[in-house]
Amino acid sequence: MNNNKAIIIRGPTASGKTDLSLKLAEENPIEIISVDSVMVYKGLNIGSAKPAKDILDQYPHHLIDICDPKDKYSAGKFVEDAQQKIRDTQENNRIPVLVGGTMMYYKVLQDGLNELPSADDDIRNQIDQQARDIGWPEMHRELQRIDPEAAKKIKPNDRQRIQRAIEVYMISGMTISELKKKNSNNNEFQFLTFSLMPDDREGLYQNINSRFDSMIEEGFLDEVISLLDEDLVSINSHSMQSIGYKEMLEHIGGRISLDEAIDAAKMASRRYAKRQITWLRSMGDKYKLDPTNSNNLQLIETVLHDHFEAIR
Length: 312
Description:
This protein has helices spanning 17-27, 53-58, 75-91, 103-111, 121-134, 136-146, 148-153, 159-172, 176-181, 201-218, 220-229, 245-252, 258-283, 296-307, and strands at residues 5-10, 30-34, 61-62, 95-100, 190-196, 287-289. By secondary structure, the chain is an alpha/beta fold. It has a six-stranded parallel beta sheet, sandwiched between helices. The model has no long low-confidence stretch (mean pLDDT 92).
């Protein structure tokens, strides 16, 4: 097997990514690596549309239920975890298939993170002392001299961002604008990318609405209440800012009715799907699939046979 290759199946919410990957797993030696910023959290099951336990037991999945819901899971941590799971899967002579809709995770995995120097307390103290002497508006003018591009984006009274931009320059000798343009591409893997691109936007929105109704019937509200009652999360937990959970919290807090929460969550999901489609259009995936095409499984399997010795 060519050990540097991996499959990506991505698309907007409710476009059928999970079902397609499970069908692929029935007949092929794949392991699924989740690319979902909510499924990483333990206990966030119904609202994240997490596959049922029997499915997870039957088909190997990774990066699901790996983080306590009170903690924050970052894009940087995802890259570290995903790369290791890809390597592990390849070493076992199986095919890694990354499936999910968190587009920022894909971007940092494929394009790399911007490498900025860590904060330096001594340099920050120097900057703060200088600001006390001449004032932050003057520090902003100093930033204009050092990095005009950054200064245009930072307001003269934004002390934190002015401090950080000047600090980066003092540590590295390069402006923060220059460093942000220097992406460290991840060349370790060759990704064969499939995107599910719905032609019927209204049909996708209907799927989103129907799926959320199903979540409510399955006990989504009770799931959120239990997480709070068992002190597994607080209203300020990062995981509770996810679509659906945020709106349920608004209802639990008495600020809106359940019907209003459901409508707000559906609208937020539709807007999220629209943003996901915008991301996909910018990513230039080689294989673009209509989710309603019954031949999608065969198309992906053809690519697998062409690129992976494990199933020849």
